Amino acid sequence: MGDITDNLSRHEFACKCGCGCDTMDVQTVMVVQDVCDHFNCSVAITSAHRCFTYNRTPEVGSNDNSQHPQGRAMDCIFSASTPEEVHDYLCEKYPGKYGFGLYRTFNHIDTRSGVARWEK
Q1: Topology annotation, domain 10-119
Q2: pTM exceeding 0.85
Q3: pLDDT in tens, 10-61
């Protein structure tokens, strides 16, 4: 059981570099929990809050426009569904909101103010 929601704990939001950044936007948390509730599953967070320094490393290779350094994005693996099923659910439930990325093994979920959809 998580300490933030039924499925999420604060330590899962921490930047992988160890800098201590671990703040996460409440909307992002609620969207991820919504997926867990809908599919009755658990979630593994592979990346959440990233400091700008870590976000720019070759290991991550992202840019300053990423939602991760703003604490508004999570990369997630859901236990009881495929990334395609999760992506379809999110796009249908939140048609005019947020950013959803479909990857081969995980989903990117962010709560940016605009709308973005992509597949890699």
Answers
A1: Muramoyl-pentapeptide Carboxypeptidase; domain 2 (3.30.1380)
A2: yes
A3: 999 999 999 999 999 999 999 999 999 999 999 999 999 999 999 999 989 8
**94 class by beta-carbon count within 10 Å (0-12 exposed, 13-18 middle, 19+ buried):** middle
Return the H-helix or E-strand segment holding 52.
Answer: helix 52-55
Give yes or no for residue 85 having a pLDDT over 70: yes
Domain layout of the chain by residue ranges: 10-119
What is residue 26's three-state secondary structure? helix
Measured in whole angstroms, the distance separating CA 36 from the mean position of its chain's CA atoms is 12
Sequence-ordered list of residues with C-beta below 8 angstroms from that of 114, at least 6 positions apart, any chain: 99
User: In what order do the strands lie in the sheet containing 98-102?
Assistant: 43-47, 73-78, 107-110, 98-102, 115-119
Share of the chain above pLDDT 90, in %: 90
